[in-house]
Amino acid sequence: MAPSNDAFLAACRGRSPSRRPIWIMRQAGRYLPEYRAVRAKTSFETLCRTPALAAEVTVQPIERFDLDAAILFSDILSIADAFGIEVRFDPGPKIERPLRTAADVAILPPADVAACAYVFEAVRACVERIGGRVPLIGFAGAPWTVASYLVEGAGTRTFRHAKVLLWSEPDAFDHLLHVLAEATAAYLEAQVRAGADAVQVFESWGGALRPDLYRARAWPHLRRVLVRALATGVPVIAFVRGGEAVLRAIADDLPEGDLVVGIDHDVAMSAAVSIVGRDRVVQGNLDPMALFAPRAVLEAEAQAVLDGACGARGHIFNLGHGISKDTDPEQVAALVDFVHRA
Amino acid sequence: MAPSNDAFLAACRGRSPSRRPIWIMRQAGRYLPEYRAVRAKTSFETLCRTPALAAEVTVQPIERFDLDAAILFSDILSIADAFGIEVRFDPGPKIERPLRTAADVAILPPADVAACAYVFEAVRACVERIGGRVPLIGFAGAPWTVASYLVEGAGTRTFRHAKVLLWSEPDAFDHLLHVLAEATAAYLEAQVRAGADAVQVFESWGGALRPDLYRARAWPHLRRVLVRALATGVPVIAFVRGGEAVLRAIADDLPEGDLVVGIDHDVAMSAAVSIVGRDRVVQGNLDPMALFAPRAVLEAEAQAVLDGACGARGHIFNLGHGISKDTDPEQVAALVDFVHRA
Predict the structure, then answer these.
(1) What Rg, from alpha-carbon coordinates, does chain A have?
(2) How far is CA A13 from CA A203, A228, A258, in A?
(3) A7-341: CATH topology
(4) In terms of C-beta density within 10 A (0-12 exposed, 13-18 middle, 19 or more buried), how is residue B34 classed?
(5) For A286, A298, B64, B266, which has the most beta carbons within 10 A of its beta carbon?
(6) Residue A231: pLDDT above 90?
(7) β-strand B314-319 against B281-286: which pairing, if any?
(8) Is A149 assigned a catalytic role?
(9) How many other CB atoms sit within 10 Å of the CB of residue B216?
């Protein structure tokens, strides 16, 4: 059943929306007191693994703000369950036995996305709690981004082990991204079957590889995921961080169909539209730090994003990266209102 | 007096060097046991502020490896002394009263680089200890990079306060970068008078601003520093991190003269040469993580840098960023040898 607020899906499909749609990356998160209240009683893992709780925090931002979409509360490493890989949060992700060598990669079991059933249950619970008000966006991490965690065993700023595997064991590296891509496609298909109205794939670490290396070694795997997700018939958002350089590297190879290109705040929106082409729908890209500026500055920065996107086929307003936990929710309310009035 | 090893200065000036010169960013640092031995007895501050000790660690890498240049051991925030701003290291830099507002910026005293006399003394001590073996590179941080520390009061991943100042108080932001540029030029001139054979300016946070914003708001201040440093007659290296996008943003505005363009590892060297032009001398840009790969992989990655730079007017081999503290010094020795044999 189509949600009563159709602005987001219309924009995704290149049709004229009733208003400029806006949602916010990490909109269900620590900047919201009601989220912190849930987390005070529940660990992050439990929240992710308990469909009713995941649905509760998923709807929090759409109850507080006039947002045009909800996004499933989950973690990009939930898919590790499909391989029987245990991830702890401490508070960042930690993996006991990271995949450092070709031998580690070779013994990966076949993916079983049924082990992620709690995620698909959470999608169903979200759909029920949203009650047709707004569309629900499902999501997954892109193969390179997920692989970097599985290889490093934790968050990283250097990507040392992932790069050494890429350089030293190219076949094992490619195999790892290949099996992750297959599992991720199945994972997104299951989210769509459970009721997700669109999906976003997060390539959070697109900028960690040189653009030519990203294009050659990581992008083909993400592209396969996008093509399979598009085949489900829902709009698909590809959010590949890495600014102008990575955008240039992939721009001529973006799949056709209802693909929305997520733009990070490391590139001016007008430049991004030139790079991906005016026949594309774009999403983004206000700097999350603009929410810390005085109201007039916040609005001027938001207007610059709107102006920059005016040449695109369509535009979904968003930040260029996840919202900061220190953000004042009043600033978010002001932003949503400004974008809708624009 | 010209150093007996002239390869680095010849390459900087676009002449044919006797061999491919190599030095390594942060070559005097924690990956060296002899450096850790000094630091076990001395704080980082004391090391920076004691010319004899700074000179001792400056020469450590040139005594261990067959490097073609030494670089002064110092900190990019030493220039804060010129404004009477105290920086503690804990272990990252901490500033008690960061410059958050226009009023904070307005009450900055006039710069007095004589307060940095210990740095110029360290240059003289380095020249003496090097004894004419290799040239000495002096250095400074670029205005935006130094300003970001002075505004944030510490290292940052978000650049929240610096960006809010840039957006909200453009005149104060520009004034801050202007006075930093003037002080930095005087600071580099004094290093050259004290005996530095070349200078490098580090724009470590060039990638923290969108390329169009970097070009408009930060680059003009760095450019003034480079022009004044070039007027001293020594070669000047501009190391602006931010990959391909920032390089494209500044490529048509690089000053003429003996300016070497430092290339980070977020761009393929061949792409960097196309962007800055084949009439430029470039420096860089091996990924520091390549030093963790097996020897054959390290050499293949180094060869790719050499191949990528072959169209440039000249090339100084270096990493694309500072060496990691966990690096095996034997790998550095192997790299230096490989580059000289290439």
Answers:
(1) 19
(2) 22, 17, 5
(3) TIM Barrel (3.20.20)
(4) middle
(5) B266
(6) yes
(7) parallel
(8) yes
(9) 12
Q: Which of B152, B164, B165, B167 to mutate to test the interface with A (most CBs of A within 10 A)?
A: B167
Q: What are phi and psi of A285, to 5 degrees?
A: -140, 45
For residue B263, list chain A residues with Cβ-Cβ distance below 8 A. Answer: none
How far apart are the C-alpha atoms of B21 and B91, rounded to whole Å? 33
Q: Give every CB contact of residue A327 below 8 A, 6+ residues apart in sequence.
A: A31, A288, A291, A292
My answer on whether omega of the bond before A285 falls inside 30° of 0, hence cis, is yes
Contact, B202 vs B322, CB < 8 A? no
Q: How do residues A117-172 score in pLDDT, each as one tens digit?
A: 999 999 999 999 999 999 999 999 999 999 999 999 999 999 999 999 999 999 99
CB distance B29 to B291 below 8 Å = no
Nearest CA in chain A to B169: A297
B170 to chain A, closest Cα gap in Å: 11
- For B59-71, the pLDDT digits (tens) are 999 999 999 999 9
Q: Where are the alpha helices (DSSP H) in A65-142?
A: 102-106, 117-130
**Do the beta carbons of residue B24 and residue B67 sit within 8 Å?**
yes
> Has residue A58 got a pLDDT over 80?
yes
C-alpha–C-alpha distance, residues B79 and B150, integer Å: 11
Return mean pLDDT, chain A.
Answer: 97
Residue of B163, B173, B270, B275 to mutate when probing chain A, most A C-beta within 10 A: B163
Catalytic site residue from A13, A20, A49, A75: A75
**Segment B15-23 mean pLDDT:** 97
Q: Indicate the domain borders of chain A.
A: 7-341
Residue B188 identity: L
**Which residue in A13, A20, A26, A241 is the catalytic one?**
A26
Is the ipTM of this structure higher than 0.90?
Answer: yes
Cβ within 8 Å, pair A212-B268: yes
Q: Would you place residue B2 in the very low, low, confident or very high pLDDT band (cuts 50, 70, 90)? A: confident
B175's CB contacts (< 8 A; 6+ apart) are B105, B106
DSSP A234-258: S-EEEEE-SHHHHHHHHGGG--SSS
Question: Under a CB-based contact definition with an 8 Å cutoff, are residues B35 and B29 in contact?
Answer: yes
